[in-house]
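## Example record

The block below lists the input lines for one assembly entry, exactly as stored, with component labels intact.
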Amino acid sequence: MAIERLENGPRFCRVLTHNGIAYLAGMTADDLSGDVVQQTKDTLAKVDRYLRIAGTDKSKLLTAVVWLRDIAEFDKMNSAWDEWIDRDGMPVRATVEARLAGDLYRVEIMVTAAI
Amino acid sequence: MAIERLENGPRFCRVLTHNGIAYLAGMTADDLSGDVVQQTKDTLAKVDRYLRIAGTDKSKLLTAVVWLRDIAEFDKMNSAWDEWIDRDGMPVRATVEARLAGDLYRVEIMVTAAI
Amino acid sequence: MAIERLENGPRFCRVLTHNGIAYLAGMTADDLSGDVVQQTKDTLAKVDRYLRIAGTDKSKLLTAVVWLRDIAEFDKMNSAWDEWIDRDGMPVRATVEARLAGDLYRVEIMVTAAI
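Predicted C-alpha cells for the full assembly:
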C-alpha cells in the first residue's frame, strides 16, 4: 500500500494518502489578523483545499482534533465549525486548549478523511 | 470502504467505523461532580458503550489519547485506567495536560479500536 | 486483521501493528538531564527503535504529534527534527504545547507509520 505525499513543506508533509485515508497536517489560518471565528473559517477553507488535493472532501471526514489557544473561545470556534460542517459527514472530534506554535494562532485543526 | 456514522451529535459524530477500525470522539464523564478517579471510570464506561455500538470492545484497542485538566492527577487517572484496561489488549497511549471544553471536566479520552 | 502488540508496558502498549500500520505510544527521552534539543534527539532515536521493532522505518511515517513543554522551544525542537527527518518520508505533523507526565520532560512525540 503506497504512501502518496501530495504536498511537502520544509519539515513535514501537508497532506498524504495511504490505504484509502487522507491525512492532513495540523492546519492554521494564513491570515492571523482575524479573531478565532475568522481564523477557524480560514483554517477550514484550507482543510477543504487539502482534502481536494487528496481526492476527497469534508463529507468523508473521519477524525478531527481542534486545539484552541483559549478554550473560552470554544463557542466562537463552533459557530464557524457549525456553518462549515456537512451534517451527513461529521467526523469524531476532540477539542482541547493548547498554546500553538505561533503567538497569533487562535486555532489549529488536524483531520483525517476517507478517500 | 464505507463509513458508518453510528451516532451523531449536534456537531460531530460520537462513533464511526471505516475499514475495520472504530473511531470514537473525545469522551468525558456525564457526571461531573466526581473527582478525576470517578470521572475516568465514567469516561471509560462510556468508551465501553461506544466500542460496543461499533461492534468491538476494549480488547481490540489500538490508540488512546488522554487529556488531563491537571497533569498532577496522572496517578489518580491511572488508578482507574489500571482497573479497567485489559492487559492483553492495551493500546498505545499518550497522556498530556490540557484545559478542556467544560470547566468541571478533569479528563477526556479519545480512542480507536480494531473491529 | 490481527493486532500485534509488540511491546507492552505496565499499562499501555509501546508499539503495535494492525492492517499495515505501526502505532507507537507517545515517546519521551530516557535521559531527562538534557535540554529540549537533546531530549528530541533521544526521543527520535527511540522512535527509530520502535519503528524497527514494527518492521518499518522513518521513511514510511504517516503522522506525528509533537507536544512541547514550552512552545518557545519550537525552533530548538525543530533543529533536532530537521537533522533526523527523511525529506522523502515526512509525515503530516502537528505541534502544540502541553505539560507532560513528568516534570522534566521537554518533549513527547507520537507517530504512526506504514509498514
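The domain at 23-114 of chain A is CATH 3.30.1330.40 (60s Ribosomal Protein L30; Chain: A;). The mean pLDDT of chain A is 98.
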